[in-house]
Amino acid sequence: MATTEGVLVASTSRGCKAINAGGGAITVLTGDGMTRGPCVGFETLTRAGAAKVWLDSEEGQRTMKNAFNSTSRFARLQTMKTAIAGTYVYIRFKTTTGDAMGMNMISKGVEHALHVMSTEAGFDDMAIISVSGNYCTDKKPAAINWIDGRGKSVVAEAIIPKDVVQSVLKSNVDALVELNTSKNLIGSAMAGSIGGFNAHAANIVTAIFLATGQDPAQNVESCNCITVMKNLHGNLQISVSMPSIEVGTIGGGTLLEPQSAMLDLLGVKGAHPTNPGDNARQLARIVAAAVLAGELSLCSALAAGHLVKAHMSHNRSAVPTRSSTPAPGAGGPGGCRRR
Amino acid sequence: MATTEGVLVASTSRGCKAINAGGGAITVLTGDGMTRGPCVGFETLTRAGAAKVWLDSEEGQRTMKNAFNSTSRFARLQTMKTAIAGTYVYIRFKTTTGDAMGMNMISKGVEHALHVMSTEAGFDDMAIISVSGNYCTDKKPAAINWIDGRGKSVVAEAIIPKDVVQSVLKSNVDALVELNTSKNLIGSAMAGSIGGFNAHAANIVTAIFLATGQDPAQNVESCNCITVMKNLHGNLQISVSMPSIEVGTIGGGTLLEPQSAMLDLLGVKGAHPTNPGDNARQLARIVAAAVLAGELSLCSALAAGHLVKAHMSHNRSAVPTRSSTPAPGAGGPGGCRRR
Amino acid sequence: MATTEGVLVASTSRGCKAINAGGGAITVLTGDGMTRGPCVGFETLTRAGAAKVWLDSEEGQRTMKNAFNSTSRFARLQTMKTAIAGTYVYIRFKTTTGDAMGMNMISKGVEHALHVMSTEAGFDDMAIISVSGNYCTDKKPAAINWIDGRGKSVVAEAIIPKDVVQSVLKSNVDALVELNTSKNLIGSAMAGSIGGFNAHAANIVTAIFLATGQDPAQNVESCNCITVMKNLHGNLQISVSMPSIEVGTIGGGTLLEPQSAMLDLLGVKGAHPTNPGDNARQLARIVAAAVLAGELSLCSALAAGHLVKAHMSHNRSAVPTRSSTPAPGAGGPGGCRRR
Amino acid sequence: MATTEGVLVASTSRGCKAINAGGGAITVLTGDGMTRGPCVGFETLTRAGAAKVWLDSEEGQRTMKNAFNSTSRFARLQTMKTAIAGTYVYIRFKTTTGDAMGMNMISKGVEHALHVMSTEAGFDDMAIISVSGNYCTDKKPAAINWIDGRGKSVVAEAIIPKDVVQSVLKSNVDALVELNTSKNLIGSAMAGSIGGFNAHAANIVTAIFLATGQDPAQNVESCNCITVMKNLHGNLQISVSMPSIEVGTIGGGTLLEPQSAMLDLLGVKGAHPTNPGDNARQLARIVAAAVLAGELSLCSALAAGHLVKAHMSHNRSAVPTRSSTPAPGAGGPGGCRRR
Question: Which distant-in-sequence residues (6+ apart) come within 8 Å of C334 by Cβ?
């Protein structure tokens, strides 16, 4: 984790300790696909409608898939979601991208597929208004990412025995459940949030993104998260659902030396040798597990009322330092054992 | 700007060039106040209602302001916004914070004010559920930040003569206006966005946040932005409205050496000597002006259809480098002249 | 209640029975003000910024209040909220409107105030783009109504003893709390809702609106509602927060005979004789209390798994009938005793 | 149209006149499927994940389709969309429903499919928390309806010659385009709207719903609409996109005598004799075309600044009357010719 907030590392580490004491975290990958949503235009609705009908048809799907897939060894078009406003058609391409985060790969595929649509499928009156029509949606808050996912979709869960909640987290199960309901569910609802039903997922996501060479501007949607807590037979059951974690283990900032070393440490450096995409998916699971630890720890701190004090003591002890390698023993995201 | 996306620096620089050719950018500061939204609980609605009535009353306002303001030389409570769900009361404190981003300052003030409310104003049955009830809202997407602002609220504008649009931006006024309408307004509306009506504000915000020692996890809301373009007598009028830029020039990451040097270069290092807060406000104006340049340049590139090509050539020329000081001549955000 | 869904009346009636058995409902009025949000335009941001600064200033507030208030005996301007996008300024006027719902009243006041601003305050370069700039927001989903309120803001609560939950509602406290959390809080969050954290507030709101001569198109925002349930010492504590109930007891459809009779039955017909607005506010409290009953009953039915069966038996017994007067003994909204 | 707002009928009628002068309206149906989103629960994420994997698999899809389709002659399961939060799985069933609006039909199918899943597919540890988990989403604002559609999805367009804009609508093309951008796009964006990018779709939808026996509480999502205007070779091109119009021509309120007569007048009464669903789809197209007329007329009135005056003169001439049959010559929604 790369951060200047000293308390973050200590906090996540404490969360990991509690999770490990409870048997580790479970992660489930529920989706994997990067998206790009160009905007194309026609002169009339009749033509825009014809384009949408064709794109939604079997022939359209096949033609576009062939065109798209021809541009890369890794990108495989999964779905196209289309919508019309005025005479504009918005097309959300969703594709696997191997171990790359995939934005460049998908942009290239989209451009070629649109070219084929224009020249070979009878839509030469189509204007490509923008290869990104904000229907992607990249680096901006948007319900479409929350609802349909973008990048990797992961759910992580841990069950923390009640005595660990008390000894490690200095809280109790019912207080945590009430805090989660009143703050993360109701509080965010009152604030008009779409996808922000958590305590501080963005802190953990950003720190890992910086440490592992991800695009830190993509934390805007990557930090989408709903945290759920429940009293399960007296113990604490906690989970985070994160539908749009955008990560890769090749290309971009992952090539820089410290970031590359961190990926290596986590066991997900570069392209996966046998199953392309496994490294990137594993990294997304690590992100979710680390967020789980962060939520657990911060919520416990809030429930115990010592947030401000923690910030003061951790930051004042010294000038904050940016560490792009994890402090020994601190654990970092990889410190969370996953079952 | 600190980024591994090489094209970002070149792009923003091109935007600055166009803006400067048109007479520079105007910025208007329309708000300044950090927020914290605790959740307090009562046993019944009757008591929660009594608390809300008191907080909204003149006596409540005065008592809370006195309590809050006593905790800092800089924090001055501006408003409290209250809401009830169930038996929970959510209170959004909004305060000036001098040249600090202000989260620690405001948390301290909130804790003290709630303590006074509990012990001196007859609400000793109040439970402080969480000093942050997500009604702030910190590091999460939320309409409340978009609508009521958080940190600094800034609008920036530039008018680009039509010949500059052609010569520097390789586009034309009407194409840009249509692109902005179809992508940034309609496209984001179709994607269900709250506050994400722009092309890539997050890229610029994140790069400046890293370069100047801001909290990069706060880009989630700091990148809220609506970009508007208009044909004004044949020229391009472009503006960005950014209601929730969260920045400071003292404390946290601003103390690190390279970040401190960057703030110095921008003329906003540390506390403003005579008017506390002026440095932080100036930094927010710089952020907005840089976003203006970034929007201008990327939208021009999209309108001209050369986004993918630009990414390829800039990134392939060499391994991308992270520069925390601006490349000579590249301009960086400070390179945009503001009128 | 006017409805063709036979089950609705029976259901709300059952909810009322449970509420009355528990001591009745409490309602708290937390806000009262109709809004109108015109859009005005300028040629440059500089001028738009000057307008915003003036509107936010003491002089601007005083001038606009005087102008606005001069147009009606009842409308009293409370606040103006302003925002800039591009060269447009959006101004959300909020005003009391006596016992009228108030849209015509406020539109008249807004037009005059803008006229004064244009002719007497130095803004003769201002174009009134639209007396409604959708910043109101009338009859459309919008976070601003959820967060800032529109019309009447009411919270209603009831505490249902556990034995009543079992005997009348055929459910149990913990099942209801879990249903509310998983459906009304988490389910709506997953669906990307702003303000729709309830089971079926719209059913009750619409039925009462039709029965009492309200504008049924305003149920779009009037049905904004978050339902909260809690186990309080073994009993069920339930509440609804409804920030934007738009009702009146004079003008419009309230003049029609059956609707007028219904208002009379509820004791809120016409203008309140001594305290203008009290009748409309009372009607809003009745709406919230009826929604409380509806939430209680439907959630109990869902928890017991007999929703579909209930619909079938109630609707099949006969051709559904539209009754604009309440069935004798059915209770209707007025049948809920409020403490 | 059933309304007490006298101006509404006159206004929509004027819009129809302009549309007809321009050659009529085009409508495109882009989707058709009612939804129900139950919430089911498991003890652990592992089990919830297994359920999601099975539901998303070919076997799961086939099993659920067979079970669902066996419950009705008309309901045909199109898709299931699944999401996990905590240990809850939300499943959005989408289905054709013939000429019925379809909520009862789909609820029945969902219950049976979940029963089969529980008893025959190895998920007997599944708890059916609620047959509606708000993931539908019925009668509440929610991005999922805006993005994925619910009921019928329709886009309608008309091109109004510039002289008709002047003679009939008393406005001009550029003024209308600016009004639409500043009010319906930017204004709604500033207000934090999801799906409310129009002037007053709810007025038209509600009036037609009441006149034709639809469920008026479903106008909450049925009025979702984005209005787009463009200068096309000097003429006005206007369209409305409405993704979630929930209507039927059999069952419920359509059986009432006046409503049935209105459906007859529109040529869409009862079940379509040869192609089930065609009547309901046709009604949805009529709704969209009427909204198009309403948008055109109100926006023209706003652009010309005579909204308040129009309300005054139309309502004051007489006590408003509720007409459930259209005034002769007024046109009503059916008065708009569609190409």
Answer: C265, C266, C267, C286, C326
Architecture of domain C6-32+152-318: Alpha-Beta Complex (3.90)
Measured in degrees and rounded to the nearest 5, phi and psi for residue D229 equal -130, 150
Does C129 reach chain B within 8 Å, measured CB to CB?
Answer: no
C115 is catalytic: no
Cβ-based burial of C268 (10 A; exposed 0-12, middle 13-18, buried ≥19) = buried
- Total residue count of chain A as it appears in this document: 339
Write the ipTM. Answer: 0.91
Contact B288, B191 (CB under 8 A): no
For position D11, what pLDDT does the model report?
81
Q: Is B5 one of the annotated active-site residues of the chain?
A: yes
Which pLDDT score, from 0 to 100, does residue C95 have? 97
Q: Which residue has the tokens 């086939």?
A: D62
Q: Give tens-digit pLDDT for A59-89.
A: 999 999 999 999 999 889 999 999 999 999 9
Distance between B307 CA and the closest CA of chain A, angstroms: 8
Beta carbon pairs, C and D, within 8 Å: 268
Helices (H) and strands (E) in chain D, counts: 13, 9
DSSP code of residue D326: P
Chain D CB contacts of B147 below 8 Å: 190-192
Q: Tokens standing for D18?
A: 């302009």
**Other beta carbons less than 10 A from residue D339's beta carbon:** 11
C191/A226 Cβ within 8 A = no
Query: Domain-by-domain residue ranges, chain B?
Result: 6-32+151-335, 38-130
CB contact under 8 A, B45 and C157: yes
Question: Cβ contact (<8 Å) for D87 and A157?
Answer: yes
Would you give the distance in Å from CA D178 to the centre of its chain? Answer: 26
Residue in D143, D147, D189 closest to B185 by CB? D189
Q: Identify whether B115 is a catalytic site residue.
A: no
Compute the mean pLDDT over every residue in chain B, rounded to the nearest whole number. 90
In chain B, residues with a C-beta closer than 8 Å to the C-beta of A302 are 130-132
CATH 3.30.70.420 is the classification of domain B38-130: yes
Q: Give strand ranges (E) for A185-301.
A: 196-197, 225-232, 235-245
